[in-house]
User: What shape does this take?
Amino acid sequence: MEEDNNNIIVVEAVDEEDEDIFDEENIHIRNFLRILPNMVYFNTIFTVVFGSSIIILAISLFTDLNPSIIPFEVVPINFGKATNLIRQLSIFFTFISFITSNILIMRIVLTFSFGIGFIAICVEGSPINLSYMMWNFVILLINIKHVILICYSKRHIKFDDDRELLYNKIFRKIFLRSIYKVLMQNSLIRVINQDRYYAKDGDECNNLTILISGIMKKIDTKNKVSYVKVCSFIDSPEFVMRHNIRGQRFNVSFYAETECKILIWPREMITDLLNSNIDIERSLLSILGIDVANKVLVLDNL
Assistant: This one.
């Protein structure tokens, strides 16, 4: 028993020592971060350094015309030689690719860059630097593939009138048409006749639904009445809370004052889709979150 107690004491002492070391490391990290330049000045520092570098680059590109503009000896560029000119163009396009934040433009410019680099090696004459040529060619192929895939993902896909309306009203800012097409695969369009309930208080929540057209009234347990906005989700709060008991049944009723057209995803099917595609799930949940927030603001104003 005494030996066990001693072991326990030793373990506790080691743990306390580790905690002290951890705290000491945190202090060093905080002190280091304090001496870093304030991010307020980062853009200014970067602009000065980047601008100076561009000026020096511009001067160096004109050294062939007047070598005396550089106070020390430099290797001439010799733009008159085709291979040198092509290599400069290749580097220029690589530079452009780093400036743009548009992925498609970046890939297109990189395609030009490595395509020109590949040509430069081909026209250089023998002996050919085969490894360097193949590096350029392989990277060229990768960028061509990405350009084709991005262009294909941005292609215009035609939907029926109802789904086109929902895309423009709800999903356009978040989803590409190709992703929206995947989301719509298991969706169904249904009509609720006038003076019929879509759901009553206590009914199970088995779908995710959007009101396409018509007037649908929402009645809570205190008989407070509000209306579902056209081109908005009917049961977004329940779907967001689908993993909680509160999301399993409705605590409000939905009544069609006129004939209502709705788009439905069966909950089981859309859950399977979201589980297999995390990007679609995150985007859809962000849209549902905005819809729920709008519903809360409407209730606050009643």
Notes: The beta strands are 188-192, 196-199, 207-213, 216-220, 225-228, 232-233, 252-256, 260-266. The chain has a mean pLDDT of 82.
